[in-house]
Amino acid sequence: PGSPRHTNRLINEKSPYLLQHAHNPVDWYPWGQEAFDKAKKENKLIFLSVGYSTCHWCHVMEEESFKNKEIGEIMNKNFVCIKVDREERPDVDKVYMTFVQATSGGGGWPMSVWLTPDLKPFAGGTYFPPDDRVYRVGFRTVLLRIAEQWNQNKDALLENSQKIMEALQIHARICGQAQESPPPSQEVMAMCFQQLSKSYDEEYGGFSEFPKFPTPVNLNFLFTYWALHRTTPEGARALQMATHTLKMMAYGGIHDHIGQGFHRYSTDQHWHVPHFEKMLYDQGQLATAYTRAFQISGDEFFADVVGDILLYVSRDLSDQAGGFYSAEDADSYPSTTSGEKREGAFCVWTAEEIRALLPEPVEGAAEGTTLADVFMHHYGVKEDGNVSPAKDPHGELKGKNVLIVRSSPALTVARFGLEPGQLDTLLSQGRRRLAAARAQRPRPHLDTKMLASWNGLMISGFAQAGAALAKEEYVCRAARAAHFVRRHLFDATSGRLLRSCYRGRDSAVEQSTVPIQGFLEDYVFVIQALFDLYEASLDQGWLEWALQLQHTQDKLFWDPKGFAYFSSEAGDPSLLLRLKDDQDGAEPSANSVTVMNLLRAASYSGHMEWVEKAGQILAAFSERLLKIPVALPEMARASAAFHHTLKQVVICGDPQGEDTKELLRCVHSVYCPNKVLLLEDGAGGSFLRRRLPFLRALVREAGKATAYVCSGSGCSLPVTAPRELRGLLLG
Prior knowledge:
It holds the Pfam family Thioredox_DsbH. InterPro entries: 6-hairpin_glycosidase_sf, 6hp_glycosidase-like_sf, Ssp411, Ssp411-like_TRX, Thioredoxin-like_sf. This is SPT20 protein. It comes from Nothoprocta pentlandii. This protein is of the alpha+beta class. Helix content is 48%, strand content 10%. The protein is built from 27 helices and 21 strands. The protein has a five-stranded mixed beta sheet with strand order 1-3-2-4-5, sandwiched between helices. The protein has a four-stranded mixed beta sheet with strand order 19-18-20-21, sandwiched between helices. A three-stranded antiparallel beta sheet has the order 8-9-12. A hairpin with a 5-residue loop joins strand 4 and strand 5. Helix 11 runs parallel beside helix 17 (452-468), helix 14 (371-378) packs across helix 16 (422-438) and helix 19 (520-537) packs across helix 21 (590-605). The longest helix is centred in the N-terminal third of the chain and has 19 residues, at 154-172. The relative contact order is 0.09.
């Protein structure tokens, strides 16, 4: 209400995170020359604060410190203050996070770093409380101490920052030797499996006690390991670890049973109480992981979860122009009259609310049983709330319930004497009723920034699900998003991707005044998406664009001396380090995914230099792959594809013919990680025919759609029956 008392330069930015801070009493600058020049001219230190719009602790630090007028005055007097959205500028984030992790042993957001006027870091941390606490120094104290140090001890501080920088540059070098060969794949895969097996939680799934993260990279590794060891006990265990984890997550509170989709992570061992933000990159990767679980097991449970994720994204994270938004916040107002946001307020329930919403008696059940009784039993709802105080440090969830499937359908049916099939109807009715009630609550903040990389991950999720579940509408949604990326996140003149665009006024798609150029991860995830979309749609236009982008990626990011790709391009004087990610985390690292991209690109183009590059990346990360492959499960998985050589599955036939469609359905129904799919439709001048001359020799048997499975050494005998093709794919 009323006009804000303060407005700073961030009001001119497009990033939702930066705009959240536009009315702080802090004189914030965006990352850029204006701020750097001011620091040099006034000989002032820089305070750099990095976060993102759905980060809970970023909100806390803003409320406590950045909205505090007195702390704002200390900051403005002594520092040039810069705000960075880590999702817009992952390059800046990674440079200073490398420093914070190296000097403090931990990291996270908000990230708080103090820099010399020439951008060298010398002190840093994450969240600081505003004032001193028993075990924690306060932000006000840190600001005053650092300002005093700069005034009294400038030379020592500058010398120290120079030494830190030199140490970081040595630490950041990941170099392969030109003559080194990639590490033996079998050894890497076996070691990675052992390390995951060791950290696996037998009871609840996942790979740590708590907090528990979805880590799709681990699950995808396990699926590949199973595919290569189907008949061994280790293979069976790998599959069980992955599917059990996916089931426990789907039953857990990390899964939004009312509004669909998955929250970021669980604070406890049981996947029960989450941090409630929802990130696009999780939805994209989990859609793919659940799709693979369905392909392998045929269990409709997994297909239902895929449908649930994609419904959420289509409804809540989709722009009308076709792109995907970045995230939904964890915090929201409990009611329209509340003055303060609370974490999880949009998603949690009191027992009283559920009783009021589901009061009707259940037909055929024991007398007096209401729909609320059945629903509350099934979803673990307790009268006084089901969240342990230990998992609710701020008391925001007291008396509230996070829904979690606590009872198997069979036990719930038996307890209430229900008819078989009745439970699904009752639970579905209950969920719909709660969803309608929830729609009346104030929604969490939506980050409407659209990133090329995360859109790539989501396109892959829709495309792979569409192919494996035979849902044309998912493939169409993936294609619509790819058209969006081409229109709004690609500069056709330079052939380069852009990092981000934004929902602006009247829901128009806008660019920032100076668009941010795409980073390595943007190219890698978009290229992967285009390959996935080609296999799902068989539109060769996506292949052509993917290969063009791969050439651009090589030109901008490849390191010809040390091998592998840098995360950012050369030539930005404000970036003190060019780094190469060596960890598959919440998202797989770009170099890990690009190994598979290069192998696929070579299979579609005959350009064998890309196979060589894939081997050089594996060589560059050789030491890490042999010692702690669990840090790079996606790259370990790709090393198997490199050593086994990809199968080219070629279907010769009319794309509209029923016999062709049958063979394609067969390919899509089998989980075969080390293959690419090509359709040879007989069109003389097609893109694939021009690139791969051997396709001309492959013909239809007796005029019927025919499949060939080819590798470097030649092609299999032709097959026309899906059963025979399935045998070849699994062989």
